[in-house]
Write a structure and sequence with these properties.
This protein is mainly β and 743 residues long. It folds into four domains: 55 residues, no CATH class; 61 residues, Seminal Fluid Protein  PDC-109 (Domain B) (Ribbon); 289 residues, no CATH class; 168 residues, Jelly Rolls, CATH 2.60.120. The protein contains ten helices and 58 strands. 39% of the residues are buried.
């Protein structure tokens, strides 16, 4: 404490202050008892003794903390005690004796050296050590080599087992803090905050390739900025719980996963991976899975694609090299579900395109089965959605001996499937398409997805076989009422068989679609040869008797098409040849021709034969509002055909009206008392009317009746090209060979 305590300000030259300062400074430097001393302003200040004490305490605390750090850090094994003497320089260094680990006690000063390496010296040294218990073992087990310290029942170590288990998990490569964001319980938007996981997936794939292991995607969301190219042999996910999703900067018009173009022919497998392309509201067009290389005995199984607007699954083998590549051989594609994938201006939900400009790029052998393509809601700003399934070929590429089986397709007012080979029909060969079903949806103008209506038809072919191929087989193809729209269009094909198809006018009794457009059911172009239809059905044959106008529902310009089913045949067995109806004789008294086999006939009708044996019926102009005239033929057909129920007879008539008034003049055919009336709406058009009628044994006659419903100022002439009456089925009117029934 100062003597004078003048409280003069700093810098004072007062002698009293100088004396006080000298006294205070002496205590600061020389005092060995007091840690503090009061200055001339009354403030407590540290003496040198106090500063020394504080530093000593701080160093002791730091040493203790450091020693505890060393003790809690990983242990460093020096050597067994029996290999000593051993010198310890750090607290985390250890030795072992009789199967136990030891470290120097905290009270032992380092460095420390053991006195020897025998049991005798250990009796002396042991007081300087503390037993570690299982602490060192715990550390070793937790280390990167810990699995090698654990044995299993077969004599292997756990590390041996892990090295040989055949799996690598993508999750093992992703930082722990990011894993929490991509858990399957998370949302897509939350998962995107994890950022780009592509580098981690890339490294995991590379390791799986080098080690020959299966790459596993555990359940979760995996955002990536570029297409993941699978280089390892096999990828396995957790089904609809393992999703690849695009980041905001994903490559536009790219697929989330691919087998990249290659000049090789690798064997690959991908199973149970899902893809979410984020839909039309996302700024990029993103696809699901792309096969862009040739491959051999590979498999694609259990993929789920949702909202992939660039396309769901696409098979487009290329090479990425001008030197050429390899083919796809024996590819197995199974259990694929595409929901709202594809784009009207991009690819279909599922597409196969073989168009490589160099060698390779064909597809021979394999199967695509259990494919569900539900594409009714992509881009609801458009009235028409994408096609469900397309196959296209060019540059001489072939698709041979591939089975397409159990497809379900749903589209919004569009064709469901197109097959087109620019190379010609022989390049799509020996392929089989089985068990296809589908439905067409309609979105009313200004409506939302909640008002999409099912079971409508578009004015487009549902199946557009621009190339039906050569010796291909189509079975149960949109049968049981699922063939809508304009049915099937076949532009070219040779020796193809269609079995179990159901043709129907727009799914009901009308022949028009939702917009009032006429819909045919089957169109066969002139470039088709030897197509065969087996066990096919034409639905909604209506009226009494039941009939359908084949010319409206079926157009066949092909060569030698065949039809054989329980309903219709190309080989009809007729009760009478057409000549029995068309053969004419001359009436001696009138000098007019008449049907020689007619029981009665109207003299108002003129009868003539065409150059090919046609029967021409003419009727003159009269002043009557209505007129009818007929030729009557007696039926001597057998009634009982061995059926337990009432039998039917079937008739097919091919007729052209060459003169008369359309929508007025008519030709009526009456058999067993039941009638069908044809009133043409177009001149010089061939009409084909198929009908059936119940047998009535009390009225065993055939009538050919000509008439008009309002006064006609023009004579009418009907040319009957053929009349086929059979006891068991309709006649396929475009190609048939008749034979007589022997009774």
């Amino acid at each position: 404490m100062a003597i004078y305590n003048t409280n003069n300000p700093l810098g004072s030259v007062d002698p009293r202050d100088l004396l006080d300062n000298a006294q205070i400074a002496d205590h600061y430097v020389s005092d060995v008892n007091n840690p503090t001393w009061t200055d001339r302003f009354g403030n407590q200040r540290k003496t040198w003794k106090g500063i020394e004490t504080d530093v000593s305490n701080q160093l002791a605390a730091g040493e203790n903390s450091f020693q505890q750090f060393l003790l809690s850090s990983g242990y460093e094994y020096l050597a067994d005690y029996v290999d000593g003497p051993i010198t310890f320089t750090r607290r985390n260094q250890i030795t072992a004796y009789n199967g136990e680990f030891y470290r120097p006690k905290a009270s032992v000063n380092l460095p420390y050296t053991t006195t020897g390496n025998t049991a005798t010296t250990w009796e002396t040294d042991k007081d300087d050590f503390v037993a570690m218990g299982d602490a060192a073992l715990r550390q070793s087990l937790a280390s990167a080599v810990g699995a090698a310290l654990v044995g299993i029942s077969n004599g292997m170590t756990l590390q041996d087992y892990l090295d040989g288990d055949g799996f690598i998990s993508v999750m093992d490569y992703i930082p722990v803090d990011l894993r929490l964001l991509i858990q399957p319980t998370s949302t897509l938007s939350a998962a995107l905050t994890a950022g780009d996981l592509y580098p981690y997936i890339f490294q995991a794939d590379a390791d799986a390739l080098s080690k020959g292991k299966i790459l596993v995607f555990p359940a979760g969301w995996y955002p990536i900025s570029q297409s993941y190219n699978q280089t390892c042999f096999s990828v396995l996910g957790a089904g609809m719980n393992s999703y690849l999703i695009p980041t905001d900067d994903f490559e536009d018009e790219s697929f989330l996963m691919q087998w990249a173009p290659s000049t090789a022919q690798p064997r690959k497998s991908v199973r149970n991976i899902s893809f979410n392309g984020r839909g039309i509201d996302y700024s990029k067009r993103v696809g699901g899975f792309l096969v862009a290389t040739g491959c051999h005995s590979s498999e694609i199984h259990g993929l789920y694609m949702a909202a992939c607007t660039y396309g769901g699954l696409r098979i487009n083998p290329t090479t990425g090299s001008t030197s050429g590549g390899r083919d796809i051989v024996n590819l197995n594609v199974d259990q694929i579900y595409c929901l709202d994938c594809g784009g009207t201006n991009y690819f279909a939900g599922v597409s196969v395109e073989l168009n490589s400009s160099v060698s390779g790029g064909n597809w021979t052998d394999g199967v695509m089965r259990n494919i569900d393509i539900s594409g009714t809601q992509p881009d609801l700003t458009l009235a028409t959605g994408p096609q469900a399934f397309t196959i296209t070929q060019s540059n001489g590429k072939q698709l041979y001996n591939v089975l397409f089986e159990r497809f379900f397709t749903a589209t919004r007012m569009n064709t469901h499937m197109t097959i087109y080979s620019a190379n010609g029909r022989s390049y799509f060969t020996s392929n089989t398409l089985l068990n296809f079903k589908g439905e067409t949806h309609y979105l009313p103008s200004g409506s939302t997805n909640t008002t999409i209506v099912t079971s409508y038809s578009a004015s487009l072919p549902q199946i557009n076989l621009m190339t039906a191929g050569y010796q291909c087989f189509y079975k149960n193809f949109y049968s049981a009422g699922s063939l809508l729209n304009q049915g099937i269009q076949i532009l070219t094909g040779q020796m193809c068989t269609f079995e179990g198809l159901t043709f129907q006018p727009c799914g009901g009794s009308t022949l028009n679609d939702v917009n009032g457009n006429y819909l045919r059911q089957l169109y066969i172009a002139a470039a088709c040869e030897n197509l065969k239809f087996v066990n096919c059905d034409i639905r909604y044959i209506t009226g009494t008797p039941q009939y359908f106008q084949a010319m409206n529902q079926i157009v066949d310009n092909g060569i030698m098409s065949e039809w054989e089913s329980s309903q219709m045949t190309s080989s009809p067995q007729v009760m009478k040849p057409f000549s029995w109806f068309s053969t004419l004789a001359t009436n001696v008294s009138t000098s007019k021709a008449y049907p020689s086999n007619a029981t009665t006939y109207s003299t108002d009708i003129t009868y003539a034969n065409g150059t090919n044996g046609e029967l021409i019926l003419g009727f003159p102009v009269t002043s009557n509002t209505t007129d009818t005239a007929n030729a009557k033929f007696a039926i001597d057909y057998p009634i009982n055909q061995g059926a337990s129920n009432q039998p039917y007879y079937y008739a097919t008539m091919r007729v052209i009206m060459t003169s008369g008034i359309v929508n007025n003049h008519y030709l009526q055919l009456q058999i067993f008392g039941s009638s069908v009336v044809l009133t043409p709406d177009t001149m010089n058009k061939e009409y084909i009317v198929n009908f059936r009628f119940p047998v009535n044994s009390a009225n065993k006659f055939v009538f050919l009746i000509v008439g008009h419903t309002t006064q006609a100022s023009t004579a009418v002439s009907f040319t009957i090209k053929d009349l086929i009456i059979t006891p068991n089925k309709y006649t396929y009117p475009y190609n048939y060979t008749k034979s007589l029934v022997t009774v």
